[in-house]
TrEMBL record:
GO terms for cellular component: endoplasmic reticulum membrane. Keywords: Endoplasmic reticulum, ER-Golgi transport, Membrane, Protein transport, Transmembrane, Transmembrane helix, Transport. The gene is Bcap29. May play a role in anterograde transport of membrane proteins from the endoplasmic reticulum to the Golgi. It is found in: Endoplasmic reticulum membrane; Membrane. It comes from Nothocercus nigrocapillus. The keyword Nucleotide-binding does not apply. This is Endoplasmic reticulum transmembrane protein. It comes from the Eukaryota. It holds the Pfam family Bap31. The chain crosses the membrane at residues 23-41, 81-98. GO terms for biological process: endoplasmic reticulum to Golgi vesicle-mediated transport; intracellular protein transport; protein localization to endoplasmic reticulum exit site. It is a multi-pass membrane protein. Belongs to the BCAP29/BCAP31 family. Residues 7-111 form the BAP29/BAP31 transmembrane domain.
């Protein structure tokens, strides 16, 4: 059952279109990772900026609307930091999973080819053994 399912998926992934798109998707994948890294570092910079303002504003005792505005900007920058960091982490995990699945598919293809070759060799050996026994008799 698993080999039948494997060969079905192998037929789907062996379309010539996928090999043409592979170069594009690798570049797109790396571009998205670079973009997420830039967004992550920008979010880190914003959090540091508004955290420093928060400390100095608390000491000076400014009006509450300015303090609330700074708190709002700090909250948004922290939110962006968490979103970009988690997105970057999941994107890297996704890339690793795709790499492992690709390696597994190649290994399964090699295993299936070797199994066929072993079966053919075993059948040929059995045939030659029986022929040899018939000749000896």
């Amino acid at each position: 059952i698993t080999l039948c399912l494997f060969f079905r998926w192998q037929k789907i992934f062996m379309f010539p279109l996928w090999s043409k798109l592979a170069v594009f998707w690798n570049k797109a994948f790396l571009t998205i990772i670079v973009l997420l890294i830039v967004l992550f570092f920008d979010a880190v910079r914003e959090v540091k900026k508004y955290s420093a303002v928060h400390v100095s504003e608390k000491v000076v005792n400014v009006n509450t609307s300015a303090f609330d505005h700074i708190q709002m900007k700090l909250f948004r920058s922290q939110r962006n930091l968490y979103l970009s960091g988690f997105s970057l982490f999941l994107w890297l995990v996704l890339r690793r999973i795709v790499t492992l699945l690709t390696q597994l598919a190649k290994g399964m293809t090699t295993q299936a080819a070797l199994e066929v070759q072993v079966n053919n060799t075993t059948e040929a050996a059995k045939k030659y053994i029986t022929e040899n026994e018939m000749l000896q008799q």
